[in-house]
Amino acid sequence: MLTEKQGQHQPSVDGAIDFGALFDVLPSPHMVLDRNHCYVAVNRAYEQVVMRGRDELIGRNLFDLFPNDGESGRRLRDSFNRVIETGEPDTLAYIPYDLPRPPELGGGMEVRYWTAVHTSILGRDGEPYIMQNTVDVTDIVGLRQAATLPFRAGETQLLERAREAEEQHQALLNESAEFRRLFQLAPGFFAVLSGPDHVFTFANDAYLRLVGDRELIGKPLSEALPEVVEQGFVKLLDGVYRTGRQYQAEATRVMLQKPGEDEARDTFLDFSYDAIRDAEGAVIGVFVQGSDRTEDVKRQRRQRLLLAELNHRVKNTLASVQSIVSQTLRSAPDADTAKRDIESRLAALSKAHNLLSAQEWTSADLGAVIGQEMSLFDPERVSVDGPPFKLSPKASISLAMLVHELATNAVKYGALGSEKGQVRIVWKEDADGKLTLSWRETGGPPATEPSRKGFGTRLIESIVLREFSGALEPVYREEGFSCNIRLEAAALRGARA
């Protein structure tokens, strides 16, 4: 059963009137199309005017049977689509549309002019259909063109007014379509919600991208975007619809769960709700507009975190510098030695910072840290070997200072202070989660345990024992100094800078 969508009448069959038979005997041509423009029903007058029987029409596409690739074909198709999309009737006051004559009538094309009214009706399945009532005005057009029968002037004037009205109607439609296209492609998101249930009647491309290309048109907000109901947005819309007062918000958090996603995601929006009023001033809907600020909000949060991290690192660096200077001055035998030691230690600290800056302070490889501290020495005399091992920023700086102190001692007292001495540095990660770093000197003077601990030795012990709760095993032999250092691998990877 087909029902009229906009009116109050519903065709039915009772004991007195057969509406199916009534449709068939109506004197003016009527037909019904589905949303794909295929014939569902025609009456006898329509069969006569298009010179086709219903057996040739039912189930066939109108534009296949009566093709028209010109302006008239476009206007007719657009009118059908407007009726399906809006549910509102649409009139073509004047449209030239030629019909192909059947072969038995000589074939070829017959020039015809029409006035057509298209109305939306609903089927039992809830699907929209298009009912067309047409009037063939070809004869009147011929009279106007011939202008030979003055007593029919009233008809020709009427037709001329219809043609002019249709031209104005098309101009308005074109203007409306242009505005709609601009809204559709606008970078900000727009939507029109109608009635107290906030039914979507328009949503532009940006809005569809925001919500994940869902089917929105014709659905209330609570059905189309169910996840926003509990977040309070329907109540806000209710308030705007009830009071007519605008609502605005900036960088507001909305949890949206797009189709195919397991969880809702944080989205941050600037938006406003504005009341839509009819000619009498009554609120009939809400206009939604706004922009997606998600990336801006995330960027601002990252900047705040980076500033906090930078402040933290500056404090740590200043504390390190203060400790290096004060401890070096306390243990140095004279001012020149203190100056030299301070400069070399600060240089080592600077190198470590440079290495981390190149990695955006995320991490540094242990091999790169050791290689940078040993880069001043002849590569023929220094051997570095070990697998890739990522250090946290804090561990990178600490191990850079540790290697610097071992190298400084090797220059002052060990293998790097002689012409033929060599240093071999090897590391590996053990099965028990420990990183073992081995420092071995050969070819230099015999190693003897010092009678007192200088700042360099205390710094090494502080890093290994207190900072990383590791183990330090120095060995003093005739062939040179060696040292095994064992540290928690997890602490080296995850220590905070």
Question: What's the CATH architecture name of the largest domain?
Answer: 2-Layer Sandwich
> Helicity, in percent?
40-55%
- What is the overall number of helices? 16
CATH topology of the largest domain: Heat Shock Protein 90
Report the uncertain regions.
3-15, 143-156
Beta-strand portion reads: 25-35%
List how many beta strands DSSP finds: 20
Oligomeric form of this entry? single chain
Q: Tally the structural domains.
A: 3
Q: Mind telling me the CATH class of the largest domain? A: Alpha Beta
CA radius of gyration: 43 Å
The CATH superfamily of the largest domain is Histidine kinase-like ATPase, C-terminal domain
Shape: elongated
Largest sheet: 6 strands, antiparallel
Question: What do these coordinates show?
Answer:
With 497 residues, the protein is an alpha+beta fold. It has 3 domains: 2-136, PAS domain (Beta-Lactamase, 2-Layer Sandwich), CATH 3.30.450.20; 189-292, PAS domain (Beta-Lactamase), CATH 3.30.450.20; 299-494, 2-Layer Sandwich (Heat Shock Protein 90). Helices cover 43% and strands 26% of the residues. Strands 1, 2, 3, 4, 7 and 8 form a 6-stranded antiparallel beta sheet that branches. Strands 10-9-13-12-11 form a 5-stranded antiparallel beta sheet, with helices on both faces. α6 packs across α7, α12 packs antiparallel against α13 (366-373) and α12 packs antiparallel against α14. The longest helix is centred in the middle third of the chain and has 38 residues, at 294-331. The radius of gyration is 43 Å and the shape is elongated. The two termini are 75 Å apart.
